[in-house]
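PROTEIN–LIGAND DATA SHEET

This sheet pairs a single protein chain with one bound small molecule, S-adenosylmethionine, given as SMILES. Inputs appear in the order they were entered. The predicted three-dimensional arrangement of chain and ligand is reported afterwards as a token string under its own label.
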Amino acid sequence: MIPDLIARNQITKRLRIWCAGCSIGAEPYSIAILLHENFSYLLKGWDVRVIGTDLNRDFLSRAREGKFVDWSFRSCTEEFKITHFVSDGKSWKIKDHLKSMVSFQHHNLLRDPIPSVLHELGALDLIVCRNVMIYFERAVNERLVNQFEDALNSGGWLVLGHSEQIQVQSNLKLHHFPKVTVFQKEEALPALPNFSLPRIDPSVVADFSPPTSLLQPKFNAENHAVKREIQTIKELADRGQFEAALSICDRLLLVEKKNALLYFYKAIISDQQVGGPGVEQNLKQAVLLDQDFVFAHYYLGQFYRKRSDSYRASRSFQTVLRLLSRLDGDRQFDEADGISVTELKRLVLSQLEAA
Ligand SMILES: C[S@@+](CC[C@H](N)C(=O)[O-])C[C@H]1O[C@@H](n2cnc3c(N)ncnc32)[C@H](O)[C@@H]1O
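PREDICTION REPORTED AS:
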């Protein structure tokens, strides 16, 4: 699977892997080790992210620590253990260069959105969800498999445990491997990643306002031509046509110089490309034009967190919390996959924890 993905993503030089229901992190760290041991020379200069999610916050805290007891290595060689882990006497801690390839987030497979760029769970190349769906009912699993399919790039892979009995009626092709059930998403368009942006449009951002004028956008939401163009930007980005989407952003910005949303999209789309330029600058411009733009602050926080700039990450996340505190908890942001104020708060708190 990995060689296939590396061949497929030669142009984007981007690899996104999601371990759904990762427990204390053995799976995502194993993938990081696998990539490092076998493919690091091919992945030099690539943007590789392994994301582990789980429902259980205690498991996630342990996963973030990256410590494992001897028993966890029962099927590994001693050499494997000492190559990739450091002993503290009681347990073995994953080495920093491997730890930095992996991030962890809280995510409930039954309730939270999939795909979701807010959770960095969109345009994925590989989803691993082993020994999790055994707990769910058949109808739930069928829905989940469809959601996983939506979250995968064309040609992306889905790995389930061998005991997961799934009826698949989608564009997922079954491959036979020992001990795992593996599906590959059929190519819809050749080699185009399926990137999903939050469904933000000017009218919805305008709808941020109650109960105060807190989140009122500072641009002309009535301009229907601009609205249509923004929809096109989103559709192009959804099909992975990042360059085309960015060139429309740039053309519109020549006229719509104060459109915070355009800067925001520019940042989000650039962030999908290796070394995409100006992500921070465009997000800053968005919050400068609209200080109450919750999602621009949120992404800025994520941007800093990924770069280990804890101070600025915390500052941005605190701003999001402050803005959210003025909104009703049940209120849903349709523009961001229906996430509610309460859920976004929880998400920000977990990001703060990781910052
Ligand atoms: C048996 S463990 C599997 C761990 C790992 N995938 C493996 O195979 O070693 C199941 C994991 O699924 C998680 N889980 C259960 N329900 C979940 C849900 N609704 N959303 C996300 N994770 C869930 C549990 O917290 C647990 O960590």
